[in-house]
Amino acid sequence: MLDEQLRTLTIHSSSNLRDAMRRLNVNGAGNLFVVEEAFRLLGVLTDGDIRRHLLEDLSLDIPVTKVMNRNFHFVRKGVAPDLRTLSGRIKYLPVIDDDQRLVDFFVLESRPDIPVAKPLLAGNEAAYLAECVATNWISSQGRFVRRFEHDFADFCETEHGIATCNGTAALHLALAALDIGPGDEVIIPSLTFIATANAVRYTGASPVFVDCEFETWNLDPDLIEGAVTGCTRAIIVVHLYGQPAKMDEIMAIAERHGLTVVEDAAEAHGAKYNGRSVGGIGHLGCFSFYGNKIVTTGEGGMVVCNSGPLADKMRILRDHGMDPERRYWHPWVGFNYRMTNLQAAIGCAQMERIRWILDSKRETAEHYRVALTGVPYLTLPPCNSWSESIYWMYSVLLDEEG
After folding, report:
1. CA-wise closest residue to 84 among 96, 76, 73
2. 3-state secondary structure of 241
3. Distance between CA atoms of residues 30 and 38, nearest Å
4. What are phi and psi of 46, to 5 degrees?
5. How far apart are CA 259 and CA 7, in angstroms?
6. For the chain, which end, N or C, has fewer CB atoms within 10 Å of the first or last residue's CB respectively?
7. What burial class does residue 349 get, using C-beta atoms within 10 Å of its C-beta: 0-12 exposed, 13-18 middle, 19+ buried?
8. What is the mean pLDDT of residues 19-38?
9. Burial, 368: exposed, middle or buried (Cβ in 10 Å; 0-12, 13-18, 19+)?
């Protein structure tokens, strides 16, 4: 039976594409092994290969060897396939002997695509988007932008929220509002996403990297003062993977040196430090609402703060530097960092279910904790009495011995 199955998946190298299409119609596998005499394997041909050929040339009379894939995956007889090295698109994997003769094949069951993150959009997102379309408020004006800013600032226990088009723009806007520019230095952690450093460079300032500590994977307070110079203007604290940094120690250092603290809380919506919401502990807090974040608007960001003058300045800079009292008068060089009403509509619906979203994140993290506790060579994410991580991503460390 195995020989017959194998033969239905093979075609001789002397055959043409018309023959191959007939064979594919019979086996229904979408895959053929191209062999020559003695079943020596030359290549693999799929229905996709034939479709791509037909888009360029309508001829079905050319040899299969002209279209087949010669760079194919295979395993040696007696060796089990390593699925980690194979694309999920491969379904039929040929087995060859030492003479490259086709002797068997593996059928690889379809492997599930497990996403790193998946937006939770089961609330009023569609209804609010429909309202935007029905009322024609689809740009940066509309009731949802102001509502989302208010709701999210309240969630962060701050007075002001300034919505932006993305999280990187939020970081840049915060630094621009602080008048940070060429010649200035901004301390940032060495372990973070590139957006943190890019936002500093956008202003013309220089990022100064400080290492992270093992306990929290965040900026090490013991190393910060050694990096402070006469050019240092600010510290950007990143709450990595939803785990809060040691804010009291960092704020004390900033106060001693007259520095501003910007919290990069892109991955930490709802995380707590000593009972306080991250983003509202420093002078400014920046968030991302990208599709894989805890609260999402597809793209989008927010700066939160308790300073009215800073909030007013950021709103002006966000809208091309336009004077709010005099349209088309621009006292500052600004940016187009506005959030659309469509994005904010999704954000408002997300905020209605934020507690459920946070509980779901923590529940998922607890499943991982139970399953991975005691596994050799693994260090699980930080867990401290003074912090409440939101586990945006449940990351682990692999010990060197592993």
Report:
1. 73
2. helix
3. 23
4. -120, 165
5. 74
6. N
7. buried
8. 89
9. middle
Cα separation, 296 vs 392, in Å, equals 12
DSSP 297-314: -BS-EEEEES-HHHHHHH
| Predicted local confidence at residue 92, as pLDDT | 85
pTM reported for the whole predicted model? 0.76
What's the Cα-to-Cα distance from 3 to each of 21, 79, 235, rounded to whole Å?
21, 19, 68
Tell how strand 387-388 and strand 206-210 pair up.
unpaired
Question: Token pair of 107, please?
Answer: 């059928």
Give per-residue pLDDT as tens, 324-353.
999 999 999 999 999 999 999 999 999 999
Residue 262 vs residues 169, 176, 208, 311, 391: alpha-carbon distances, Å: 14, 12, 14, 14, 21
Report how far residue 249's alpha carbon sits from residue 266's, in angstroms, rounded to the nearest whole number.
21
| Continuous segment of H or E residues that includes residue 195 | helix 194-202
- Which residue do the tokens 């699980």 mark? 380
Write the Ramachandran bin of 93: left for phi over 0, alpha for psi from -120 to 50, otherwise beta: beta
C-alpha 138/C-alpha 131 separation (Å) is 9
Instruction: Choose among 84, 10, 80, 77: nearest CA to 44.
Output: 10
Q: Where are the beta strands (DSSP E) in 109-229?
A: 160-164, 185-189, 206-210
What is the distance between the alpha carbons of residues 219 and 183, in angstroms, rounded to a whole number?
A: 23
pLDDT tens per residue, range 214-230: 999 999 999 999 999 99
Give the model's pLDDT for residue 118.
81
List the Cα angle 363/356/288 in 5-degree steps: 95
DSSP strand pairing (260-264 vs 284-288): parallel
pLDDT tens digits, 248-265: 999 999 999 999 999 999
Using DSSP's 3-state secondary structure scheme, residue 226 falls into helix
DSSP state of 152: H
| Measured distance CA(243)–CA(365) in Å, rounded | 12
As beta bridge partners, residue 106 has 93
Q: Are 77 and 96 in contact (CB under 8 A)?
A: yes
